[in-house]
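Re: Re: token formats

Sure, here are both.
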Amino acid sequence: MSFQRVEVRKDGIGFCYQGSWIVVNVSQDEIRIAEEISYEVAIGSQLGKIQIVIKNGKAYVESPLGRHELANSSEIISTLKKINEEVVKSKNAELYEKLSKLLS
């Protein structure tokens, strides 16, 4: 993996990729991947408006223009499975089970 500093949270993971902080949020029925954007004013961080959504074994790009299915999402899903096995499994069993279920 070419990620620096993978951080396991209660409801997902975060990692540094090419100078940006990427978050992977896990809910009951989907996974959302987005860049976390911070501003210099004190409004806190927000997620980018273009996100990857994984639901029912398929990946979609969600943007202000709508939600569109990706033709080949196998690399995204296999990379998340690898992170789940190598990092999440030993740090958060509940999150590991959720991710495993959503990625199967």
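Second one below.
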Amino acid sequence: MAHPGRYGLSSKWLKRLVLYFKQQGGDAIEVAQCQQPPQEREQHAALAQAYDLKASLGSDFHRPCSWIELGRNLWLPANVEPVWTLWQG
């Protein structure tokens, strides 16, 4: 699931959406983005844990511009499993 913090949902509705996503076969959620508030990253990490989803990160870098730096502030919390573990042997 990409950009879960950008849907404008309350915590309650975001949990419902993530549950539905998981029930439909979803296996990962974007936990980290550039220029993201720390509490949002924590919320998305908690959702990944609660619904047994892998975690991804996204730069949202589509072209050079003054308001996004490629890779700036991108890291996953230690308590989530990265999505790329699905690709390993």
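Residues 11-23 form the longest helix (13 residues). The first strand starts at residue 28 and ends at 33.
- S.
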